[in-house]
């Protein structure tokens, strides 16, 4: 009897051997592949032109999906999704017995004028190279006011166990987001003491893996009530709970089971929980302290950034983009062919270096202001400042001056999240600038948090 | 496009083989195959590609692993999978072929649970037989890091495949 696998003595070799001996059927022909690629390219270019035409006349806005993971999670999973999402879930239910209670809740949800809730999530996983678990907790409050204003503040805390009995606790993020209905939003990073203006939040901007999208999927997949959870006391009331099963969750981060606890007096949820399947493991997602149709302080929806916080809203005008390119070009000219080789972009320090490179050393002298090069350097301060300001944003920005020079025509020197069309604003080594699509940016490794 | 057509002509076989081996399902493999060429075309518009085969294999591998992770996202794969307790028969027999298919599917399942870099590095190193330096260059890592990733992936696979996979000399097993 022969062996199924090679006899190399190593199970991995056997495994490799098994794959190599696997029968692979013929794939598409070369002509079929060429035809497909050409057709897809034509379609894409056609769509791109259509998109450009459609957006040319619109002001450029920061797309919600371009935010960092933290930012997207913050709003994407809870901001708009709560009322609408639950409504979608409940409309999709098939089970007969609980439907009457559910239908009443759907109706009540459609009528709410305001609400607040407390969010808490927990994601525990073992980091690569570690043996002990890491836990990431997110907590915060969200407020919603008809017709669609959202305000929230959240913290993300990481807890590691370097050794038995030891705990290392680190606050990864602390931020606020305020989106008055129909107006631009603001993201405030309380750790970095920065803020950025964001576009008006719209339902179409909800990210693909957000709760609202998952719940749309629920509707399509026909989730069903699988268990009556009985009753329990919440906020001094006897709430009734239902567990729903969501079939074939996709994408993988989607929820597959949702528990809802309903107030029998108001037919509105008091609490709901679910589990998201993250790449790192399940993330337990719990919404508690739900309060409906309450009076909310208007100050919750004011957008004044705290005093001293720095504006990191990315440059968007052609003039600003030109100022950035001119500043970098001038530096490269003075330095003999490279950009600031720094990991931390300090505009003032770079301006001082440019002055030295141009021969302006020693105490400042009045006659320098008559020198054309000196004035160019002073003007470059604006572009340098725009770069430094943008790079202060912790999320989805990057500068590669250590590795990319003026001759690297195809390498990305500087990038950040773009507004509209969505994607990434990039400056290449030769200072050409364009917007890459999200897919193109992802292929280049853009989009990673610093 | 004509240059890229030449790339397709030269490397379509290897891309298809990578996609199909990893995914084991025709429809999934076809999607992965097409996505790979479209992604490669986009990249080639902004970068000079020095090593097309390696770049295509890397894209196909990464996208296939993403698909595996989606496919098995709802399947728990903790503990010993005990895959091949009787997997020592001829590949010519239907039973043996079924066992082989089962093994391949279970290995895909394990790969889907590994950290992405581990799974990718393991596949590129062992199945695509790229050198550690080639894998490192493709993944933007140091060769030493790649070796660690491959080692960890192999250790995880050994653990998941369990003692029943522990090979003994065939002479001891065969009648």
Total number of strands of chain B: 0
Structural class of chain B: mainly alpha
Give the fraction of residues assigned to helices of chain A: 25-40%
Reported for the largest beta sheet of chain B, the result is: none
Radius of gyration of chain B: 18 Å
Distance between the termini of chain B: 58 Å
Residue runs with pLDDT of under 50 for 5 or more positions of chain A: 1-8, 47-99, 206-222, 249-253
Biggest contact: A-B, 49 and 64 residues
Roughly how much helix do the residues of chain B carry, as a percent range?
over 70%
Mean pLDDT over all positions of chain A: 75
The termini of chain A sit apart by: 57 Å
Oligomer: heterodimer
Unreliable spans of chain B are 74-92, 166-175
H-E order of chain A = HHHHHEEEEEEHEEEEEEHHHEEEEH
What is the approximate shape of chain B?
A: globular
Descriptive notes:
Chain A folds into two domains: 11-301, no CATH class; 314-443, no CATH class. Chain A is built from ten helices and 16 strands. Chain A has helices at 11-20, 30-55, 69-76, 81-92, 99-111, 211-221, 318-335, 347-357, 372-391, 438-443; strands at 114-126, 133-145, 149-160, 168-179, 185-189, 194-198, 224-234, 237-245, 255-262, 269-278, 281-292, 310-311, 397-399, 412-418, 423-428, 433-436. In chain A, the strands form two sheets. A twelve-stranded mixed sheet of chain A has the order 7-8-9-10-11-1-2-3-4-5-6-12, with helices on one face. In chain A, β10 and β11 (281-292) form a beta hairpin. The model of chain A is unreliable at 1-8, 47-99, 206-222 and 249-253 (pLDDT under 50). Chain B has 175 residues and is mainly α. Chain B is built from eight helices and no strands. In chain B, α1 packs parallel to α3 (52-71) and α5 packs across α7 (143-161). Chain B starts with a helix and ends with a helix. Classes of the chains: A alpha+beta (450), B mainly alpha (175). At the A-B interface, α1, α2 and α10 of A face α1, α2, α3, α4 and α5 of B.
């Amino acid at each position: 009897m022969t062996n199924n696998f090679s006899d190399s003595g190593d199970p991995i070799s056997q495994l490799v051997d098994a794959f190599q001996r696997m029968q692979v059927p013929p794939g598409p022909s070369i002509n079929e592949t060429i035809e497909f690629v050409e057709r897809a390219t034509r379609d894409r270019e056609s769509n791109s032109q259509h998109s450009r035409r459609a957006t040319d006349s619109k002001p450029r806005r920061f797309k919600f999906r371009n935010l960092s993971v933290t930012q997207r999670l913050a709003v994407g999973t809870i901001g708009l999704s709560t009322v609408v999402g639950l409504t979608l879930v409940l409309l999709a239910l098939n089970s007969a017995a609980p439907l009457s209670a559910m239908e009443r809740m759907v109706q009540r949800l459609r009528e709410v004028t305001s609400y607040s809730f407390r969010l808490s999530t927990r994601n525990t996983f073992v980091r690569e190279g570690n043996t002990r678990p890491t836990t990431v907790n997110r907590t915060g409050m969200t407020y919603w006011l008809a017709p669609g204003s959202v305000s929230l503040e959240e913290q993300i805390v990481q807890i590691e166990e370097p050794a038995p009995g030891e705990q290392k606790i680190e606050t990864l993020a602390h931020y606020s987001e305020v989106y008055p209905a129909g107006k631009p939003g603001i993201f405030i990073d309380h750790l970095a003491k920065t803020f950025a203006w964001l576009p008006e939040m719209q339902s179409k901007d909800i990210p693909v893996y957000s709760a609202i999208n998952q719940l749309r999927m629920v509707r399509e997949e026909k989730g069903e009530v699988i268990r009556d959870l009985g009753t329990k006391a919440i906020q001094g009331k006897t709430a009734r709970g239902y567990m729903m099963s969501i079939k074939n969750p996709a994408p993988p981060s989607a929820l597959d089971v949702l528990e809802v606890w309903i107030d029998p007096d108001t037919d509105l949820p008091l609490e709901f929980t679910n589990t998201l399947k993250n790449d790192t493991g399940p993330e337990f997602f719990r919404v508690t302290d739900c309060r409906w149709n309450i009076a909310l302080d208007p100050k919750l929806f004011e957008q004044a950034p705290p005093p001293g916080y720095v504006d990191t809203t990315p440059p968007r005008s052609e003039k600003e983009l030109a100022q950035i390119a001119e500043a970098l070009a001038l530096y490269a000219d003075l330095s003999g062919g490279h950009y600031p080789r720094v990991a931390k972009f300090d505009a003032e320090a770079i301006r001082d270096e440019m002055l030295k490179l141009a021969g302006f050393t020693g105490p400042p002298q009045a006659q320098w202001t008559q020198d054309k090069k000196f004035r160019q350097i002073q003007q470059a301060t604006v572009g340098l400042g725009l770069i430094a300001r943008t790079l202060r944003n912790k999320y989805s920005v990057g500068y590669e001056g250590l590795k990319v020079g003026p001759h690297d025509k195809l390498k990305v020197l500087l990038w950040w999240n773009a507004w509209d069309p969505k994607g990434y604003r990039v400056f290449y080594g030769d200072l050409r600038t364009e917007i890459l699509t999200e897919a193109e940016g992802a292929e280049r490794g853009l989009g990673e948090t610093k | 496009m004509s240059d890229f057509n030449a790339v397709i002509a030269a490397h379509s076989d290897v891309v298809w083989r990578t996609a199909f081996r990893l995914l084991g399902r025709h429809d999934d493999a076809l999607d992965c195959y097409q996505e790979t060429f479209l992604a490669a075309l986009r990249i080639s518009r902004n970068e000079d590609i020095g090593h097309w085969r390696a770049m295509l294999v890397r894209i196909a591998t990464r996208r296939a692993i993403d698909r595996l992770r989606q496919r098995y996202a709802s399947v728990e794969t903790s503990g010993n999978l005990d895959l091949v307790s009787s997997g020592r028969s001829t590949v010519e027999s239907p039973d043996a072929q079924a066992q082989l298919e089962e093994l391949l599917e279970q290995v895909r399942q394990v790969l889907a649970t590994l950290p992405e870099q581990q799974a990718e590095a393991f596949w590129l190193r062992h199945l695509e037989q790229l050198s550690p330096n080639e894998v490192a260059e493709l993944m933007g890592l140091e060769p030493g890091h790649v070796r660690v990733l491959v080692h960890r992936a192999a250790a995880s696979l050994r653990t998941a495949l369990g003692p029943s996979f522990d090979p003994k000399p065939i002479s001891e097993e065969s009648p």
